Amino acid sequence: xxxxxxxxxxxxxxxxxxxxxxxxxxxxxxxxxxxxxxxxxxxxxxxxxxxxxxxxxxxxxxxxxxxxxxxxxxxxxxxxxxxxxxxxxxxxxxxxxxxxxxxxxxxxxxxxxxxxxxxxxxxxxxxxxxxxxxxxxxxxxxxxxxxxxxxxxxxxxxxxxxxxxxxxxxxxxxxxxxxxxxxxxxxxxxxxxxxxxxxxxxxxxxxxxxxxxxxxxxxxxxxxxxxxxxxxxxxxxxxxxxxxxxxxxxxxxxxxxxxxxxxxxxxxxxxxxxxxxxxxxxxxxxxxxxxxxxx
Length: 295
What we know:
By secondary structure, the chain is of the alpha+beta class. It has helices at 2-22, 26-31, 35-97, 104-110, 112-117, 134-143, 192-200, 247-258, 291-294; strands at residues 120-127, 129-130, 152-154, 160-162, 168-169, 174-176, 204-205, 209-210, 219-228, 237-245, 268-271, 279-283.
């Protein structure tokens, strides 16, 4: 529409100008004898500009359509990966519910196939431990070969300290793969998402947090699946099956599977919250712009 108007306006102006000139005396008409040529020039320039504008708009629309297609495919790939992880977490939760006592070797054997997938930083068993059972759980874990296991938390300086006294603790008892997750063993996950999962009996996700294990991108997300005691008709909370994700790993895996990594495409995940600007959680490119840079 804009290109058509851009073309019609000089045509109408030229037509009106020639009609106006034809009503002038002969001497004045002679002075304006090049009006037709000037009008043709203006119309030609207008036609070129209008055509260029139309091509530009069409190319921009094509680029937007292409981007939308790529983004949709990328989002579907990420959603599919997360759905697979959710299904695996549900399987692990059911396994733990039907096992009165899970030993370290048994847990590692069950999650071996999940670990091979390579998408998660860790698969964890986090039992609910009452205060008066802490010593027994720590001793049993050491007998099971879980190193110098003890339940701990981090203080404000980032130092490992014994947990403060309260009724229940949620320590990481087992973690797979073992390599890269040693620092997480014994860490108390008694946080808001844990309490929310216990209240709702649903799988919940944490906000992005800074992980204490592994290397690379420090941001991670925890998924908590509450585990109840099957022998007590699923009324007593035994703990949580947990999967720890690095969003950057999910993005890179999705790009690689779709082949978009070879096209130089970058993907980012942003967290929307109360802050004026979204918070970038993960990106496949350190130079990726923020949303405010692209709006």
